[in-house]
Amino acid sequence: MIVDAEIRREMIDTVRRFVAREVIPVASALERADEYPAAIVAQMRDLGLFGITIPEEYGGLGLDLLTYIGVIEELSYGWMSLSGVINTHTIAALIIKEHGTEEQKQRLLPRMCTGEWRGGLSLSEPDAGSDTRNIACRAVRDGDEYVVNGTKAWVTNGERAHVLALAVRTDEGVSCLIVEKEPGPTSGGIEVSKNVGKLGYKGIETVEMSYADHRVPAANLIGDPGRGLGYILAALEVGRINIAARAVGVARAAFDAALAYAQDRHTMGKPIGEHQAIQMKLADMATKLEAARLLTRSAAERKQAGERADVEAGMAKLFASETAFELATEAMRIHGGVGYTTDLPVERYFRDAPLMIIGEGTNEIQRIVIARGLIARAQGR
To answer: Can you give the pLDDT at residue 184?
Structure first.
């Protein structure tokens, strides 16, 4: 779906105002307390953000990927953790929308649109992160059900999720099951066995989940058995574009903070922004920020057009995440000692930025994905 530019601008502006009014004033306090932002998430529900890319026929806003990345950038500008509440939810909904049966869509998507049901993705395992060939979580067919046993790691929203897109090994290969659960630490053979402490990305849970003889209706199989990994990896192109948009938001926040401080802070009788060394930093920061934004937009446009976007999503994620980390570091340097304190959000940008380098496939993996994709295209594959 192509969304009118005015509608896209209006939606992004609405979220920008929401972030300025409701998020920025409280983000640092919530982040330091590692507190789930329940009140903010409730307002995100009211804005329709949980159904932003879900078609209108299922109750969503039906907006395009360009609108989505604009919204993610604005949320991340205020507090990057908020974008995580939306990302895995959107990926789970996308997998259902693209590959689910009509019954699955009608049953799940309307409640996911409103945020009444939260979605999540459960792919990684303790011994299967970037190497998805090592997926060991097993689902055995037993009549009209699958019996699931195994452990999943790095599950964002895992405890609060109602719907999880779960990668499991079946007799046919890696399949995708939709797990419906009650929020909480335990639910019918599912246990949140560990809540991972993190350097940044606070206020949102990242958990390890254990499955012990958990039964899932066979009707919750997505698409064909043995093809689930392909469905998930295709959806992860959107996840990587999301990570790139998050990185642009954090990078922009760091740059804006540095630019403002460079005008306010005086040394040797003038603002530090009039010193050539600081000007060079600001010029490089602004240039890389714009490049990151354009790469992210290019990847979103390609994915939106229905074209394969593994290379473009990888490039956007790689460059934008490295840019976010560099700009967060430079912003701290420009601020000097005060940038290292918790009095300002600059240190939060510095702690949040590394997640984008690691999340949705490390940047080392992105380089391999990009190179293999380029070679395949050159060979006409």
So the answer is: 75
CATH number of 119-227: 2.40.110.10
| Active-site hit among 159, 205, 312, 360 | 360
Q: Nearest to residue 322, comparing CAs of 208, 243, 376?
A: 243
Catalytic status, residue 364: no
Spans of the chain, pLDDT less than 70: 1-2
- Residue 142: how many CB atoms within 10 A of its CB? 11
Instruction: Say if residue 277 is exposed, middle or buried (CB neighbours under 10 Å; 0-12, 13-18, 19+).
Output: exposed
Q: Homologous superfamily of 5-113 in CATH?
A: Acyl-CoA dehydrogenase/oxidase, N-terminal domain (1.10.540.10)
Topology of the domain covering 229-378 = Butyryl-CoA Dehydrogenase, subunit A; domain 3 (1.20.140)
Residue whose entry in the numeric block shows the structure tokens 């919750």: 220
Contact yes or no for 332/346 (Cβ under 8 A): yes
Q: What confidence tens digit (pLDDT) does each residue in 3-58 have?
A: 788 999 999 999 999 999 999 999 999 999 999 999 999 999 999 999 999 999 99
Tell me which amino acid residue 236 is.
L
Percent helix, strand, coil in the chain (nearest 5)?
Answer: 60, 15, 25
Decide the pairing of beta strands 163-170 and 119-122. Answer: parallel
